[in-house]
Every structure is written in structure tokens, then in C-alpha cells.
Write a structure and sequence with these properties.
19 strands, alpha+beta, 572 residues, seven-stranded mixed beta sheet
């Protein structure tokens, strides 16, 4: 009796446990089917769906008049799906032959057990069609886009280029990446448990969205002519490099920025000068140098073009007047240093206006010492020379200047005529623009507006004038003085008949001074009374005659002669 009671209890316990287990399983099943249904549906879809990207076309880059400077070409990306390959040897043999790749490289990628393996991207369309026509199981040929630059070397260090993934690497391509890049699409196909695509099941496509178009201030025709002139003078003078920068001094729009030697944007990883590097590190360094935009990335001693800035500060402060008298014996003794003028015998008696026309170092030493180091640095900062210009290109370099407390009379004397410190060409151009436009600082720039694929404006960039750094009266005096430099002074080789042109020449010696290397330059603007364009030419290490007034001024004169009529500036 006792034994039967025990057996009944035992069966009851087992029964209750079984019921609890069944209820628990039913509850879990209900939870999964009701509350987790979406999650497991997504998991199942992910297991049976295969996704292939569709690359979006990158937005174009246009010059100010609509000329296409950067576009796209349709190319192909060849990939393999390991699980779908039925004849691997045929695939390896065909792809290595058509794509001209080593068989071992193709084999390693074909035999790699991955969902999808890329064999090669940026394959030209004709080759892609040839592979597609073979109908090889497991081989996919998808359309892609490759950046194409119709003018190859034109403005290469301004435009920049893209990498294998079509992302901007340098220049405007990377600066405006957020606007230029599109949104990739995708192709979704259904597969079985083995990863093989199911026949008769339609593909789902999410179409790509093309990037927006960037319109810039650069003028294709002006850039082309300026680049031709830079290449001509570089060859004639066997110079290391030449930079030409042209901008509107009133609003900061850059019309041309040349840095020769330029490089081929459609082949940016091939060195354009010298021998091939002996190591990968040397090759990368050589490429980095080739890609550098000297107008914004490199500093130099501006030499006598900086006298524009010294003169502006001294006139504004009232330490000098146009008719003040000076004596130039060919040098000026400052403490224990004899600092020479470029004219060995000296200019003799001259006024301040004569000193600018003659580019006389002793005159500028005198007025620099009158101004004093404290006020010199005050104006240096006021004119914006210790700040970046804000140009819309990556990698702008800053000014290299003495610490104020370390500046003695000798340092102040040499700084007054543009030596013993360094600035970028873009900084010099932007600062002088302000000194001749009435006294207001401007931001040099390329970006003008963003357009959608229909040509409708999406965004306009604005660059309002900055702070006033010089009075209108002093600015007018500087325009008149610099016009006289071209009309009857050291800049006469930039004169163009019928036009009022202002400017300043410069010849500076590079460090170390013992190397005997020079930088020749000329900064000019027109019309002199109301400037519409400012141009700067810098020639690095010219051979033979190296004076800025002799070799750089004619370059700007020739450019002005050809582009002033194009800009609608009439002869006076």
C-alpha cells in the first residue's frame, strides 16, 4: 500500500515536470514567433541574400564658366563568388589572361573561401564586356566609375585626385568630399543554403545617387595660359619650379593657381621628374613632393615684394612721407653689419617715392628702424600675416617669424625689405590684395557653389570681406606708388601699352646664403587705380640672370597683355 502511494507520487512529479517543460517550450516558441519574429526574419534574409554594391558617380568639378575639369568614366569591377564557381581552372586561366594578371595572384583570390572576392577594379568597359560574354559561373562584372580629368596636368595640385575607392586624396577633391561623393546603391540576390543564386528570382536594386557638382572660381583659359607661361620660363631659366597665382583682390576669387612642374591627374602615382626611387619610402616621399602645392604648402622669403607691406605700415603710422629725403651710398651700416643695396654704387639722394621705384634697401632699412620692432609686429599681426588666409585647400602653411623678444636692429632692418622670415605666396597675395583694394582683408578661395545633377544651385558659398587693416587714403597712395614702379621703376618690364599696371619686383637669396641660389618674383595688379586682378609669379632657383624685374616681371606683363582684354578690361 505504501509502495503504491509512493509510485503515484513519483508519477505525479514526473507528469508535473513534463507539463512545466512543455509549457516553457510553448512560451519560448510563442516569444520567438511573436516578439522576435522580425529579428529572425532579418537573420534568414541575411543568410539567403547576397549584396553587391553599385558605385555612385562622383560629382563633377566645373570652372567658373562651366568647363568640366573633373568628370567620370564608366569602368568595371571584376569579382568572384567562391561558392558559385563550377570550373575554377577555367576561371583562373581566363581572368589572368584577359586582365593580364599573374596566374598565382588570380588563383589565390579565386580559391579564397569568402562570400565575394574582388579580382580587379577600374577595368575598362571593353574588357569587362569581354569577361561578361564568357558567362563564367561565379564571376561577376559590375559597373563602376573612375575619376577622369580631361585636361590631365591642368591645375593638378589644385584639383587633386581620387584613390581606388573614388575618395578624394588631395586638393579640392578632398576638401569638398562631402559634396562630391555620391551614395552607393546595391544589388540584392537570393541564394540557397550553399550560397548559390536562385534562378528565376528577381534581383532587388537600390539605385545609387550621383554626387553634387562643384563650381569653382578658376578660369580654364586663364589657368591654361598662365601654366604655359610658367612652363616656358621654367625651361628658359632651367628653374627648379615656378608658381603663378592670380586672384581678384576685391573678393578673393582665385582665377589661376599654377605650380610647375604639374603632374598627370589621370596617372598620379607615376613620378614626373627624375629617376625612379630606389625604395618604397623614397618613392612615397617623391610622390608627396610632386603633389605639393607650393603656393599654399611652402614658405619662402618674399624679398622686395614685402616692401609693399612695410611701406603701407610706415605710411599709415606716419613715420614717413612720400617726399621725405634719403641718401643711399650702396649700403647701410646697422650695428656691426653692413647691409648692401642691390645697386653697388648706391642710388644717391632720393625721396621715399624714389626709394620704392628703385627698390632701395637702405631706404626701407631707415623707415623700418623708424617704425621700430614693437610697431612693426603690431602691423604684422594687424595685416593678418600671423594667421592663415583660410584658403579652401588642405595643408596651408603658416608664417615663420622671429620671436618678438629676439628681434634686434639687424633683424628689424632685414625684415623691413622682406628677408630673415618666411611666408607663403598665398599669404603675400591675400595681404597685398587688402592693401590695394581700399584696405579690407579678403579670403582667397575657389569654391563658389554646389549644383545638383539638374544644374540647380544647392548651396552658395559666401566669403564676406574681413576687417579693415588699412585706411582708404593709404591704400590709394600705395596704388599710385606701385603704378610708378611699373611706369618708371624696377617693374617696367611688366608694362603693357594702354593699361595702368602696378607692381613690385623681388629677388631674394635662399638659405644657406653660401649656396648662391635665388628666388625671383614679381607681384602685379591691374588696372592700377581700381584693381580687378592681382598676379604673383615666383621663380625658384633660376640659372643665369636671376633678377625679378628682368625675368619674373615680363611673365606677368605677357599674361596681362593676353588676359586683360579677355576679362573685359579696356585700355585707357
Amino acid at each position: 500500500m505504501r509502495n503504491q502511494t509512493f509510485q503515484k507520487r513519483k508519477m505525479l512529479v514526473v507528469f508535473c515536470c513534463a507539463v512545466l517543460m512543455i509549457l516553457g517550450l510553448m512560451g519560448r516558441l510563442i516569444y520567438l514567433m511573436v516578439f522576435e519574429a522580425e529579428y529572425y526574419q532579418r537573420q534568414a534574409e541575411d543568410l539567403h541574400e547576397r549584396e553587391r554594391p553599385i558605385k555612385a558617380a562622383r560629382g563633377e568639378i566645373l570652372d567658373r564658366n562651366g568647363t568640366v575639369l573633373a568628370a567620370n568614366r564608366t569602368v568595371c569591377t571584376v569579382s568572384v563568388i567562391h561558392s558559385q564557381i563550377t570550373d575554377p581552372e577555367s576561371v583562373i586561366r581566363s581572368l589572368s589572361e584577359i586582365l593580364e594578371m599573374e596566374e598565382a595572384v588570380v588563383r589565390a583570390r579565386v580559391e579564397k573561401n569568402s562570400s565575394m572576392e574582388r579580382i580587379r577594379s577600374n577595368v575598362d568597359q571593353k574588357t569587362g564586356e569581354k569577361i561578361r560574354a564568357l558567362s563564367l559561373d561565379g564571376v561577376k562584372v559590375d559597373e563602376d566609375f573612375k575619376r577622369y580629368y580631361p585636361f590631365q596636368e591642368l591645375a593638378s595640385k589644385v584639383l587633386g585626385f581620387t584613390g581606388g575607392d573614388n575618395q578624394g586624396i588631395i586638393g579640392l577633391e578632398v576638401k569638398y568630399e562631402a559634396y562630391l561623393k555620391g551614395k552607393d546603391g546595391k544589388i540584392l540576390t537570393m541564394t540557397d543554403a550553399r550560397g548559390i543564386e536562385l534562378e528565376g528570382v528577381a534581383e532587388d536594386r537600390a539605385e545609387p545617387v550621383t554626387g553634387n557638382t562643384l563650381r569653382i572660381s578658376l578660369d580654364y583659359k586663364i589657368q591654361t595660359y598662365a601654366q604655359q607661361m610658367a612652363e616656358k620660363i621654367m625651361e628658359e631659366k632651367q628653374a627648379e619650379k615656378v608658381g603663378i597665382l592670380m586672384m581678384d583682390p576685391d573678393n578673393g576669387e582665385i582665377l589661376a593657381m599654377v605650380n610647375v612642374p604639374e603632374f598627370n591627374l589621370n596617372d598620379p602615382f607615376t613620378l614626373n621628374v627624375g629617376e625612379e626611387a630606389s625604395s618604397e619610402e623614397e618613392r612615397q616621399e617623391a610622390l608627396n613632393q610632386m603633389w605639393r602645392n607650393g603656393c599654399i604648402n611652402d614658405t619662402y622669403e618674399p624679398g622686395s615684394t614685402f616692401k609693399i607691406i612695410t611701406a603701407s605700415a610706415c605710411l599709415e603710422e606716419g613715420v614717413v612721407d612720400l617726399e621725405d629725403s634719403f641718401q643711399c651710398p650702396g649700403y647701410r651700416q646697422v650695428e656691426d653689419r653692413k647691409i648692401r643695396c642691390h645697386k653697388v654704387g648706391g642710388h644717391g639722394a632720393e625721396t621715399f617715392a624714389d626709394g620704392i621705384r628703385n627698390s632701395c634697401n637702405p631706404v626701407f632699412i631707415d623707415i623700418g628702424l623708424r617704425l621700430g620692432s614693437e610697431r612693426f609686429f603690431d602691423y604684422f599681426r594687424k595685416f593678418g600675416l600671423m594667421e592663415l588666409t583660410g584658403v579652401d585647400l588642405p595643408g596651408e602653411a603658416g608664417t615663420i617669424m622671429h620671436k618678438e623678444e629676439n628681434v634686434g636692429l639687424v633683424e628689424l632692418a632685414t625684415m623691413s625689405f622682406g628677408q630673415s622670415f618666411q611666408i607663403t605666396p598665398i599669404q603675400l597675395a591675400a595681404t597685398v590684395s587688402a592693401l590695394i583694394n581700399g584696405g579690407e582683408r579678403v579670403t582667397p578661395h575657389f569654391g563658389m557653389e554646389i549644383l545638383d545633377t539638374q544644374g540647380k544651385t544647392v548651396k552658395k558659398f559666401s566669403y564676406p570681406k574681413g576687417r579693415r587693416i588699412l585706411s582708404r587714403e593709404t591704400s590709394a597712395k600705395m596704388r599710385a606708388l606701385l603704378e610708378s614702379v611699373v611706369a618708371e621703376g624696377s617693374g617696367k618690364n611688366a608694362y603693357v601699352e594702354g593699361y595702368r599696371i602696378g607692381g613690385k619686383t623681388a629677388t631674394s637669396q635662399t638659405l644657406p646664403r653660401s649656396a648662391g641660389k635665388y628666388i625671383s618674383s614679381f607681384l602685379g595688379f591691374a588696372p592700377a587705380d581700381d584693381p580687378d586682378i592681382l598676379a604673383l609669379c615666383v621663380i625658384y632657383d633660376p640659372q643665369g640672370i636671376y633678377y625679378g624685374g628682368t625675368i619674373a616681371a615680363p611673365v606677368i606683363g605677357d599674361i596681362f597683355k593676353n588676359i586683360l582684354p579677355y576679362l573685359g578690361i579696356e585700355k585707357q
